[in-house]
Amino acid sequence: MGKKTKYPEYTNGSISVNGRQVASTVKDKNNNIISSNYNMSNAEQKTYNAIQQGLYNSLGNLFSISDNQRNEWSNQLNAMRNQGISEINSTYTPMETNLKNDIASRFGNFDNSIFLDNLNSITDKKSKAIADLSDNLLSKQNELYSDELKNRINTITLLNNLNSVMNANILNYTNAAASNSSAGNNYNSNWYNASASKSSSPWWGSMATSAVDTFLSFLS
Fold first, then answer.
1. What torsion, rounded to 10 degrees, do the Cα atoms 157, 23, 17, 41 define?
2. 3-state secondary structure labels for all residues of 27-41
3. Average model confidence (pLDDT) for the chain?
4. Is residue 7 part of a domain?
5. How many domains does the chain have?
6. Residue 95 lies in a domain
7. How many Å apart are CA 40 and CA 45, to the nearest integer?
8. Considering the entire predicted model, what is its pTM?
9. Is the alpha carbon torsion for 72, 76, 81, 86 positive or negative?
10. 79-117: per-residue pLDDT in tens?
11. CA–CA distances in Å: residue 56 to residues 50, 59, 154
12. More confident position, 17 or 116
């Protein structure tokens, strides 16, 4: 009977780039667990940590507006309001003054329908201009918030894309290491089966020879 072939130990797998092992697939002999690992360089580790921290901060503060941001927006809106009021006054105050001077020179007083009708017309236009300014300020306020939110979402999208690229790269390397390990273990399995088959052949041959000899002894 031939010597029994010992089954080979688990074959680990690895991937190296420029001489540095970047990924490996190994078996824990104590717990019989197979795991794949990616070994980041220092630069990759810093980048990866920065992306994770950026995502954490960005998502946590997505809808949070700081006091500095509020003050900045308030300053913009106040400047817009002051400019609007100045333009309204520069447009309608001279109209009111000219109307008063014209009526005073013509009638000597303001107690007449012509003055009141014209003044009401100017007042209505001025009120509409003030209402438009108020609407514009509200629209600008919403625009500032919307733009800020879009910028934050764009930042999150960028960070998430970078994170996905890094994770895909890690997965590709670990899959390659696992594939190398699988190839090695398949080779070992084929070698073991071939060796076991070869070692068993003499045993079957001796059994056949013994059977023939026994049969011939009965015939003689």
1. 60
2. EECCCCEEEEEECCC
3. 85
4. no
5. 1
6. yes
7. 6
8. 0.71
9. positive
10. 999 999 999 999 998 888 888 877 777 776 667 777 778
11. 10, 5, 15
12. 17
